[in-house]
Amino acid sequence: MQRRTMLGAAIALALSASAAFAANPIVIKFSHVVANDTPKGKAALYFKKLAEERTKGAVKVEVYPNSQLYKDKEEMEALQLGAIQMLAPSLAKFGPLGVKEFEAFDLPFIFDNYDELHKVTQGPVGASLLKKLESKGILGLAYWDNGFKQFSAKKPLKSPADFKGLKMRIQSSKVLDAQMRALGSIPQQMAFSEVYQGLQTGVVDGTENPASNFYTQKMHEVQPYLTLSNHGYLGYAVIVNKPFWDGLPPAVRAQLDSAMKDATKYANDIAKAENEGDIENVRKSGKTQIVNLTPAERAALKQALVPVHKQMADRIGEGLIQSIYKETGFSASN
């Protein structure tokens, strides 16, 4: 009888706790700067679905896409202050935060394919980089792919000489600045939310993006040429405010970790397909001409850009670059 009474009390306590969570769920504000129908946008909504299901309503995830809450330069500070709880910024954003090692992901032609990339993001090198964020009050949960970047401009870009004098939009990254200068173009830092207008008005002549960003932000309406260069990688780190995450009930945190693991697989599985599909969407629009590089043209671009690796070694760390080379089997001549 006593055991039954204790069991009944435990059930009642669990039910009352569930009711309390339902009445006052833990809110995670998840802000990002791209559209809902990009790989990152879809993955954020998938994480929301899984998190709310697995916590049985104890957690409510509010997703804010398209810079609804914060622009590029504002969102990291908002996370650190606790105004939002979760972000998935591009890896270039961590350089201005003081963790310059993440700019290794911006190095041109350092990854030739997803297999090489995942040896880094899903291995010890990637884990050690996420660990460096903790001193900033940030916890790194996962890497999400967007994809490989393509150059776009008001003219066809086939050789390094074609870039000379062009104003090219970049994220805030010393590596990307060096990349554009190596091609003879003029790098222009600009918030992602302002790029369409910048291209439309001629403030910038071109930019670089995976096809999913290019198409969903309607850049094909204002860029007549898209060169399939696959010259660099754009990915994200899903990060949270560390004091917030550490303060979650352990059971809830475990459920959210599980949801993030599955959302990460989903994000990375769809990234390649989404980008290939959006190249076709750009082609079908008839507004942007797709420029395919010959092997010799791509090799010439690589030859012009690989010296940026050595140029940035003091900033990023020669040891880190070499550890990535070791994981991927990088060769400047391939």
Automatic annotation (TrEMBL):
Q: Which Gene3D superfamilies match?
A: Bacterial extracellular solute-binding protein, family 7 (3.40.190.170)
Keyword vocabulary terms for this entry: Signal, Transport
Q: Where are the transmembrane segments?
A: none
Highest taxon listed in the record's lineage = Bacteria
Question: In the UniProt record, does the keyword Ligase occur?
Answer: no
Pfam families membership: DctP
> What are the record's GO terms for cellular component?
outer membrane-bounded periplasmic space
Q: Could you mention a single GO BP entry for this protein?
A: transmembrane transport
Signal peptide range = 1-22
Is Lyase among the key words of this record?
no
Output the NCBIfam families linked to this UniProt entry: dctP (TIGR00787), TRAP_S1 (NF037995)
**What family name appears in the similarity comment?**
Belongs to the bacterial solute-binding protein 7 family.
Q: What is this protein called?
A: C4-dicarboxylate-binding protein DctP
